[in-house]
Amino acid sequence: MITLKPFIIVFLLFITSCSNLLTWHLDKGIHKQAKIDANQSPSAQDDDNEVIVKVDISANMVWSKSINSGLEGNSGYLYPVKNNNTIYTVDTDGLLSAIDLTNGNVNWAIPTNREISSGLSVLNDSICLGTARAKLICHNINQLASNKHTPIITSLSNLTKFSEYPVDTEVDLITELAAPVVGINNLFLLKLDNDDLYLINPDNAEVIWKSESQNIPLRTKGSSRPLYLDNAVFVARDNGSVSSYSAIDGTLNWFTIISSRSGRNDLESQRDAEMEILIDNDKLYYGHFQGELNALDINTGNIIWTSPFSFINNIIINNNSIYGSTSDNMIVSIDQASGFVNWKSKTSSEQLTQPFIISDVVMAFTTKGTLVAFNQDGYLIYEKAFDLDIHSQTQFMQDGNKLYFQTIDGDIVHFIINL
User: Fold this and answer.
1) Environment class of residue 63 by beta-carbon count within 10 Å: exposed (0-12), middle (13-18) or buried (19+)?
2) Where are the alpha helices (DSSP H) in 130-268?
3) From CA 89, how far away is CA 304, in angstroms rounded?
4) 36 DSSP assignment
5) Shortest CA distance to 208 belongs to which of 217, 216, 199, 195?
6) Of 16, 17, 53, 353, which sees the most CB atoms within 10 A?
7) For residues 79 and 412, what is the distance between their CA atoms, to the nearest angstrom?
8) Cis peptide bond prior to 173, omega within 30° of 0
9) pLDDT of residue 51
């Protein structure tokens, strides 16, 4: 009689080997997680008695200025824009402001009396925004600075309703803008809330070309903006795809699904396209929320490698490594060439913002305002709490060791971080 025992043992060994083969690259070079309390001595030891030296970091808030009421309702995250020594901001109620970076003073603040759902872009000396009434509007910055408009009450039955601030450009859209406008010479590239893509002439609203999407519109506002580079337009959509188009006539160059659909219905199968597209050395890096991070060839759209991390904010590249904050509250470092994981670290149950780099130290804030820092081996070397409420999609405006960003409450904050 033939016994099956040896075959069963061999089969189990084979299955184990296959499992390791499929996942071996994810753990290549991973360092163990280590947490160092901010009150510990200048050095600590991990489980293998390796000495982890804390870095002498000085993080100070230079100024904090209350600008507007922040985000309200079903609006996308309204990113401020830095232009020379000025930061321009807008809130959901349409309060436009200009802040001097040198001292935090408010140069001007204009109530436009329009409900803003997306923006903001500085194009051709104008500020362009998307309204909740599905309009693209642009204000000339010099006209805003002079502020010669006098608002008047438009309804006796509602004494709090004032006339809308006059605009220099107004274009009716099919649906709301989903992302800030991208300028291509004197034309505007628009990504709408239904994932359609339009290139228009803002002077006469002429459509140069359009690319329609078959997606079910998501009711959560906000989306990654298209990227224009070398006469090509790159766009990520909520169906888990990334595409490239000719910027001249909208011809499709390539289309790649990078995050496969998996859900009980079409809505659950959507993959939120929220992070900004990142291109470096002819490679495109992108990851959908509830999807994976992918490296693609920008000329063909072919996938070079895939790493199974879900991100809800932007990634950055530094010294051939990719850094990002995952949806399960980890900071990860990924080898740019191979997609191998260098290290991953989790500090707490709080969501982290996108990371930023100062003197090769990887830093991020938690949404509760705690600043954390990691060395190049992934060990936590600094942790300090600040009394701030920060949106997980906050984008930091960085100038060397100077940091500017906006809180959920509508404050503009200036930090200086010295190592």
Assistant:
1) middle
2) 141-146
3) 38
4) -
5) 199
6) 353
7) 11
8) no
9) 44
**What confidence score (pLDDT) does residue 3 get?**
52
Residue 61 is encoded by which pair of tokens? 């808030």
String of b and e for 187-223 (b: at least 16 CB within 10 Å)? bbbbbbbbbbbbbbebeeeeebbebebebebbeebbb
Task: Please name the amino acid found at residue 316.
Answer: I
Taking alpha carbons only, the member of 130, 118, 129, 137 closest to residue 77 is: 118
CA 191 – CA 228 distance, rounded (Å): 13
Look at residue 52 in the predicted model and tell me its pLDDT: 52
3-state secondary structure of 148: coil
Which letter does DSSP use for residue 107 in this model? E
pLDDT, position 63: 94
CA–CA dist 187, 344 (Å, integer): 42
How close are the terminal C-alpha atoms of the chain, in Å? 74
Q: How far apart are CA 224 and CA 288, in angstroms?
A: 10
pTM summary value? 0.83
Inter-residue contact 144 to 155 (CB < 8 Å): no
Regions of the chain where pLDDT drops below 50: 1-2, 9-45, 47-51, 159-160, 219, 221
* Domains located in the chain, CATH noted: 31-66+323-333+342-419 (2.130.10.10), 73-133+135-172 (2.40.128.630)
- DSSP assigned state of 9: H
Q: How many residues does the chain have?
A: 419
Distance CA 158, CA 1 (A): 94
In this predicted model, what pLDDT tens digit does every residue of 228-286 receive, in sequence order? Answer: 999 999 999 888 889 999 999 999 999 999 977 665 665 555 667 888 999 999 999 99
Per-residue pLDDT tens over the stretch 277-332: 999 999 999 998 878 899 999 999 999 999 989 888 899 999 999 999 998 999 99
- Give dist(CA 65, CA 413) in Å, integer: 6
The string of DSSP letters for 271-338 reads B---SPPEEETTEEEEE-TTS-EEEEETTT--EEEEE---BSS--EEETTEEEEEBTTSEEEEEETTT
